[in-house]
């Protein structure tokens, strides 16, 4: 194994991930998509939208959790899909997203995930 | 004194409808009846550990207060007598959690407000079995997906009363209809009717 790399288990498959990477980053690098909203480029991850909820021992936000040696991560299951969809639904029910008047409409992660 | 996991004694603030409220020093794993019933004439339920704790009915006063084993409490136990309206207590607690959310994570910010709305719908007599299911569903999401412990325990007043006072909730929801819409056309159009000087012509159902 390369230096600075550690082994993780993602959805039952072994991967090598860079040390210090978040679960979301490591998964993306290996073609596994974990949905995110608040994990925005150039901003430090905050773990506020909870759309990237994964199981890493317990339920955690994938964007704020760094990978660790031998970590077993599960990102795809019916229960997780349900937990990942719920915040998106809540965001729309809140009524703070006015798509018709929003300049981001059409190029929007929230719309894409919905 | 106490048990292996809950050793020694614990200071417990006992408040509410009790003959002698105050600070009690009880051994770990103390029976809830000891602090709950005591010489209190009537009791209906108690909430262990403050608003975000568990609300138990008088039938469950045999449970033991401890750190990990049974009924966990942070150090407060509030007794509510029969005269208290259970739903208004829960409403009070849920309003606190909906208002005091920091707004950082979605489940707590939106979820608690949605739960509160479902509860209010039940309180005005428009609730159905679907609303009880919605509360359980939302509560599960807020409990598992919230970012911090405060959010994870925020649905407790509703979820614990819903399971411990299930009969009370079921007696309050309407059984004659499947679903009552939260949308009230009369209310929603009232302002525009005033502005337009229009008399509403709505058929009541």
Write structural notes for this entry.
The complex is a heterodimer of chains A (114) and B (205). Chain A has 114 residues and is of the alpha+beta class. Chain A is 25% helix and 19% strand. Chain A has a three-stranded mixed β-sheet with strand order 2-1-5, covered by helices on one side. In chain A, strands 3-4 form a two-stranded antiparallel sheet. The radius of gyration of chain A is 15 Å and the shape is elongated. The N and C termini of chain A lie far apart (39 Å). Chain B has 205 residues and is an alpha/beta fold. Chain B has helices at residues 32-36, 86-99, 106-123, 129-145, 149-153, 156-164, 166-172, 185-196; strands spanning 9-16, 22-27, 30-31, 45-48, 54-57, 64-66, 71-72, 76-80. In chain B, the strands form two sheets. Chain B has a five-stranded mixed β-sheet. In chain B, helix 3 (106-123) packs antiparallel against helix 4 (129-145) and helix 6 (156-164) packs across helix 7 (166-172). The longest helix of chain B is centred in the middle third of the chain and has 18 residues, at 106-123. In chain B, 35% of the residues are buried. The A-B interface holds A 46-51, 53, 59, 61, 83, 86-87, 90-91, 93-94 and B 104-107, 109-111, 113-114, 141, 144-147.
Beta-strand level of the residues of chain B, as a percent range?
15-25%
Helix content of chain B: 40-55%
User: Distance N terminus to C terminus of chain B?
Assistant: 63 Å
Q: Number of helical segments of chain A?
A: 3
Element-level helix/strand string of chain A: EEHEEEHH
Spatial strand order of the main sheet of chain B = 2-1-8-4-5
**Ends apart, CA distance between termini of chain A:** 39 Å
| Low confidence ranges of chain B | 37-43
